[in-house]
Amino acid sequence: MRIVFMGTPDFAVPCLQTLLDSPHSVVGVFTQPDKPQGRKMVLTPPPVKVLAAENGVPVFQPQKMKDPATLEQLKSLAPDLIVVVAYGRILPRAVLELPRYGCINVHASLLPKYRGAAPIQWAILDGEAETGVTIMQMDAGLDTGDMLLVKKTPIDPEETAEMLFDRLSALGAQALAEILPRLDDLHPVPQPAGDFGYAKMISKSMSPLNWNRSAAQLHDQVRGLYSWPCATTTIGGKTVKVLSARLSEQKGSTPGAVIESKGKLVVACGDGGGLELLTVQPQGKKAMDAKAFLAGHPVAVGTVLGA
User: Which of 33, 174, 191, 306 has the greatest count of CB atoms below 10 A from its CB?
Assistant: First the structure.
């Protein structure tokens, strides 16, 4: 079978590797254009492009999928199947209908929940106990196609988005390997009708911790925004990233007030519960544990963070 792969970030790499290791032929890889990265803004190829190049697979980086030249490139590759994993482009109907088996997408949620760009982060931000991957037959909608295979996995209470990202990336590759031999014998299941929300893109505007929220919600925010953009608060008027935290049994009545600062930093939350800040990063400095931070930045009990 001739397969075209479309994907861009690290998340998509294990799925491409699965295809390269399969008996099928990966005849082309479509990925987003190289982008400047880092402080020096060095033009950097996407991870998917790097793997494709290492394996001698032709790489295409069109600016627009609706460009007639792009469709002609695809037609010349004569794919039987297009596999899409975190490509970051909407495919026009002409592309969706081109291969014999159509286009299938590996999506990092239990559809229909968390359609959209950031399903992994939002599952944690919302305090979900379970997530997974869904392989669907793509249609013209946004993550609305019929479901072909679902793989579920529990979310550990201390798991971060970064950790879950890695696990679901591997689970997606496993699901893809499982489905390839069964393309002629699948039974697509339509997604339930209804409004299941949308996992919008994560932004830095979501970082500040609102201490009026419950301890569990704030803990989920710290986990869900790691490793980018990270949760933040202000201490002494200066912004500090909160890289890791855990629920505390200590109680406090004033949201945002420090209730312990001797060797550890515990803050009262809106529900009266406490959140212990484990790892923080002051502006312009390296990450450090709370004990090291308090040694250089003493914080009195009763100090209100975020004020």
Answer: 191
> 299: exposed, middle or buried (C-beta count within 10 Å: 0-12, 13-18, 19+)?
middle
pTM of the model as a whole = 0.95
38: its two tokens: 């880092």
175 phi and psi, to 5 degrees?
-65, -40
- Cβ–Cβ under 8 Å, residues 139 and 119: no
**Which pLDDT score is estimated for 253?**
94
CA 114 to chain centroid: 11
d(CA 271, CA 284): 32
- Cβ neighbours for 203, distance < 8 A, ≥ 6 positions apart: 229
Nearest-angstrom CA–CA distance, 19 and 29: 11
Return the SS3 of 182: helix
Distance between first and last Cα of the chain: 60
What does the pLDDT look like over 82-106, one tens digit per residue? 999 999 999 999 999 999 999 999 9
Find out whether 272 and 300 touch, Cβ atoms under 8 Å. no
pLDDT score at 55: 98
Domain architecture of the chain: domains with CATH: 2-185 (3.40.50.170), 204-296 (3.10.25.10)
Residue 165: Cβ-neighbour burial (10 angstroms; 0-12, 13-18, 19+) = middle
